[in-house]
Amino acid sequence: MSAPTQTLPEVDTRPEGTDTTTDDTPKMFHYVKKDKIVESAVMGSMVVALCGEVFPVTKAAKPGSPVCPDCQKIYESFKG
Question: Are 59 and 37 in contact (CB under 8 A)?
């Protein structure tokens, strides 16, 4: 049984990190819905990235941080 497809009501996203390295710095950042970022950071709830990865928000991206290529492609398709 496959999971249902969800439509994103808003594409206002910002990258959030997963896949931490040994020094607790994320290897790459993912795009997630902006309204879920604070909730996850405060409450520890999970967010779903555009690429489908599920994780709690623990770090904010800095300019020049690597972004998940799948999230980037999906995000770019919304801007079109």
Answer: no
